[in-house]
Amino acid sequence: MNTTAIAAEDDAQLLALVQAGDQSAMASLYDRYSRLVYSVALRVLRDGASAEDVMQDVLMQVWRSPSSFAATRGSLGGWLAVVARNRSIDLLRRRRPTDSVDEIALASSFNLADEAECSVLMERARGAMQQLPHPQQKMLQMAFFDGLTHTEIAELTGDPLGTVKTRIRGALLSLRKAFQP
Amino acid sequence: MMPTDRNPAFLVSSGGTHPDPADLTLYAMQLLSGDQSAALVDHLAHCIECRAELARIHGDLALSALTVDLEAPSTSARQRLLDQVAREKKIVPAAQPTAAQSQTPEPEARPIPVPSFGRSGSVLSMEERRPKRGTRLVVLTGLSWAASALLCLTSGLLLRDRQNQRANLTQLGRENARLVADAASAHELMDALTDPAAMRVSMRLPATPKPQGIPSGGVTYNSRKGTLVFLASNLAPLEQYKAYELWIIPADNSAPLPAGVFHPDQQGNAAVVMPDLPRGITAKAFGVTIEPDSGSQTPTMPLVMFGN
């Protein structure tokens, strides 16, 4: 917990510097979160160049409007990850007529040696995801990473709409529960 | 009310009606249509409980995002970002409070135990996110930000103008280099044609006089400089995938040296101008053969033109 508190403190300081126009703070922000933001965008878009565009866009949003994130209310890394996912889905929706959403992103080697806490959290999140019943896990990924609506998921899986919505909700609640003390 | 795919369902709770949390989840994931979202947006505007739940859902989504396998962006991405940051350099007014200052405890702020992640931002209202300020301060701040924005815009325009001028300068530099190269090439060609030391040879069919309509040509060759100009006329058209090839026959009786592949035009005229040749090859004769389109390293007999 101490590590988290220190990281949050650092993020607040970083954002203060960004707000003050300190360009080197953006370099620190990039070093800290670029891989996470890029990886989320890449997971959604499955195209490196597009994922970098999204990463650039999201990080520039912090530079242009650091107040859009209130550091006292949560994790900057998590916020960036969710914003990156949303931006990527926006982009994906414009491309849907030509891009297949059935491809699976490939895992690759990564190095989070400097961010041990983040690494632990990611391992826990992956573990919690793997513990989900397969239909829940699949539907959450279809919704979150593929940007499919519940109607589209229902059409693809043949499950009733209500079941799809319940499973997505249930999957998220299970993840939440896995991180509760 | 049962959830439907058209409109979000609102459930009755002890505190009144609230959206079905499953719909709130879809809303948080931006998977509802505009119509479907509208009712939820209206509700969220005045329901603190649902805003808190939405924040918790966004926290759950952040956990989902953490399940990705980490990949590194390209090495150029960092510099690209920093370049963009430099281009959009901020002018921060002296009176502008920093984020650190704005993070002083807010007496009325309600602690929410999970992160707040909005639709590409926060769903919490601006009133909840920023301390209240006096109207005057707001106006002054607005004016200072407007001035900053104007300055940024002007700087951006100047920067773009400078970049355009730099691009034009680069283009002019390239054009100048091309013209210099062309001039040097033309000068070299003139030297090759007018050099008194150049060897000039008329070529025709071997062992024949020069009747009209018979292929003929002339070579101007300078062995010291390795320059050669060959002009020919009355050349017969060739079969497909065939070409004429000019040969230098060295004076030291070494193997003939290929000096250029060429095709005649419709009038039977052709030229080989300044082929890439080694220097110092003294020629005793020149010949032309018919070879495959790509040329040969050894001549294929018979000679269709010869001169010495």
Overview of the structural elements:
The complex is a heterodimer of chains A (181) and B (308). By secondary structure, chain A is mainly α. Chain A has two domains: 1-104, RNA polymerase sigma factor, region 2, helix turn helix motif (Rna Polymerase Sigma Factor, Chain: A, Orthogonal Bundle); 111-181, Arc Repressor Mutant, subunit A (Orthogonal Bundle). Chain A is 72% helix and 0% strand. The radius of gyration of chain A is 17 Å and the shape is globular. Chain B has 308 residues and is of the alpha+beta class. Chain B folds into three domains: 1-132; 143-187; 199-307, Immunoglobulin-like (Sandwich). Chain B is built from seven helices and ten strands. In chain B, strands 3-4-5-8 form a four-stranded antiparallel β-sheet, covered by helices on one side. A four-stranded antiparallel β-sheet of chain B has the order 7-6-9-10, with no helix packed on it. In chain B, strand 6 and strand 7 form a beta hairpin. The longest helix of chain B has 60 residues, at 135-194. The termini of chain B are far apart. Classes of the chains: A mainly alpha (181), B alpha+beta (308).
Descriptive tags:
heterodimer; A: 181 residues; mainly alpha; Rna Polymerase Sigma Factor, Chain: A; Arc Repressor Mutant, subunit A; 2 domains; globular; disordered N terminus; B: alpha+beta; Immunoglobulin-like; 3 domains; four-stranded antiparallel beta sheet; 7 helices; 10 strands; elongated
Summarize the structure.
Chain A has 181 residues and is mainly alpha-helical. Helices cover 72% and strands 0% of the residues of chain A. Chain A folds into two domains: 1-104, RNA polymerase sigma factor, region 2, helix turn helix motif (Rna Polymerase Sigma Factor, Chain: A); 111-181, Winged helix-like DNA-binding domain superfamily/Winged helix DNA-binding domain (Arc Repressor Mutant, subunit A, Orthogonal Bundle), CATH 1.10.10.
